[in-house]
Design brief:
This protein is α+β, with helices and mostly antiparallel strands and 266 residues long. The chain has two domains: 69 residues, no CATH class; 147 residues, OB fold (Dihydrolipoamide Acetyltransferase, E2P). The chain has five helices and eight strands. A five-stranded mixed beta barrel has the order 1-3-4-7-5. Helix 1 runs antiparallel to helix 5. It is elongated. The chain starts with 8 loop residues before the first helix and ends in a 7-residue tail after the last helix.
Length: 266
């Protein structure tokens, strides 16, 4: 078997240059990809803000299909209906304003017989008695609920089987809209309403409703555009480092060695 001949100096330099150019191009491409991701998220953020600033969506136009619901998220709306108070759910481990507690979710029965999940607000948890629920005023009769349309409540990571899945109770880790609709025996619209202010009676001559005491500091979804800008800077810096080191060791350093009287340089 013939011995493998080592590469000569010119061939080694060609391999180094090819590898350096490929690595530099790859890092630069990844940097541009991160900038493109940042631009996509900025466009999405602008679209979300445009929906939030749009006129309130009439309740009669509330989506009943998932495809239509996606285009209504972040729109303001005021829904009319009746609270299904006995089906109120307290979603656990939901922080707001730096505190741990519940997001209170109550289905609202719409005039057409469908229901929509209303994220009514946040309430603190009693950590001495974790089964104790905070007091909550849920009036009877038709009410008008102002809010911002949102996807159904987000799911948290569950470790192991959820004991509430077999015997549902008011305190739950997550809420599956499909299973909850079957539990209610009603059709749920494919979105929810994050309540932004106190509900009021639908009848103009009715007395004002008592304050439910819930906190409603709903944040807009964080798109974290700065993360992509940071990643882009790192990729571009790595591309510049590879190009700089290759130029030094393959061009400048040999040139300086050739000009040095003793053929050595740092």
């Amino acid at each position: 078997m013939a011995a493998v001949r080592p590469l000569n100096n010119r061939a080694r330099r060609a391999v180094v240059w090819a590898a350096a150019l490929a690595a530099t191009a790859l890092c630069a491409r990844l940097g541009w990809w991160q900038l493109d991701r940042a631009d996509q998220k900025l466009a999405l953020q602008a679209a979300m803000q445009q929906r939030a600033d749009a006129p309130p969506l009439p309740a009669s136009q509330l989506a009943d299909l998932p495809d239509a619901a996606a285009g209504q998220v972040h729109r303001r709306s005021t829904l009319r209906g009746r609270w299904l108070g006995r089906h109120t759910v307290y979603l656990d481990n939901r922080p707001m304003a730096g505190r741990q507690g519940f997001v209170v979710v109550t289905p609202l029965l719409l005039p057409d017989g469908d229901a929509v999940l209303v994220q009514r607000g946040w309430a603190p948890r009693d950590f001495q008695d974790r089964s104790r629920l905070p007091p909550l005023a849920t009036p009877d009769g038709e009410v008008l609920v102002p809010g911002r349309l949102a996807p159904p409540p987000s799911r948290l990571l569950e470790l192991g089987a959820d004991p509430e899945a077999q015997r549902p109770g008011p305190i739950r880790q997550n809420l599956d809209p499909v299973a909850f609709a079957a539990e209610l025996g009603l059709r749920l619209r494919p979105l929810s309403l994050q309540q932004t202010g106190p509900s009021r009676p639908a009848a103009e001559d009715a007395r004002p409703l008592p304050d439910d005491g819930l906190l409603r500091q709903w944040p807009m979804p964080a798109l974290d555009v700065g993360k992509h800008h940071g990643y882009a800077f790192q990729w571009f810096a790595l591309a510049a480092l590879i190009a700089g080191l290759t130029g030094w060791f393959q061009l400048l350093r040999p040139w300086r060695q050739a000009r040095s009287p003793n053929g050595r340089t740092l």
